[in-house]
Amino acid sequence: MTxxxxxxxxxxxxxxxxxxxxxxxxxxTGTDADTVVMHTGAVAAGDLExxxxxxxxxxxxxxxxxxxxxNARHQRDRLHAAAPFTKGNxxxxxxxxxNFAKLRLWQLEQYDNVVxxxxxxxxxxxxxxxxxxxxFSAAPNVYEGLGDFHRLNSGVFTAKPSRATFERMMAxxxxxxxxxxxxxxxxxxxxFPSWHGLPVFDNMLQYVWFNLPELWDWQSVNVVxxxxxxxxxxxxxxxxxxxxxxxxxxxxxxxxxIPDIDSLANPGEAT
Length: 271
Fold this sequence. Notes:
The chain has eight helices and ten strands. By secondary structure, the chain is an alpha/beta fold. It has one domain (4-263): Spore Coat Polysaccharide Biosynthesis Protein SpsA, Chain A. A seven-stranded mixed beta sheet has the order 3-2-1-4-7-6-8, sandwiched between helices. A three-stranded mixed beta sheet has the order 5-10-9. The longest helix is centred in the N-terminal third of the chain and has 16 residues, at 13-28. The protein starts with a strand and ends in a 17-residue tail after the last helix.
């Protein structure tokens, strides 16, 4: 029997709390697949309890054993200085080096197929079909213009766990002077140069809402990914522009008044 799992990663209290919305949303799709929350040692045991209560399997996944030089190059201030984010703002709790820990999902060999989803996302309809997609499949990093279709976004992707693959990744990842400007995302595109494309609707980035509103269609959207600013941030610089998406995330986070997705208004439509 084939074993499938949705997997996410939480590396601090903020993302553990955010993952409540994601785990709840996955459960509401009616999937039979497991939901696995990988967590680093920076997450307190008590912060995992709400996720377990929603049926998630919590698995410890420590940061990778990368060299001090690699770690220094990818430290927050140094990375943001060398490769600044010019299109949006990352919150203060964002630690770029932590992102590489998601590669540990390739060690989950008890599963045949995995769909990884970032903790700052919600699944609004069943996406079990993705378990049949090949490794490695990801949606394009489109949120500003169609010219970005050549880049993948690592917020949603398909994988087939294999320790052999993980070992090959580790051999390629920490090379002398190697700098992955968008951490795991840049690395995965280099490691899987012939990556397969998922429909953009399987990883709809929130900036599409105001940058490419003609691309947003609630009857097609499957996953909403809150890249850059997070919906739980109190001081959200794009709060007014993203208010409908923030309200949707909060409904999934609390479990109260979750709307019928097909009934929601698209950008620019009257509510």
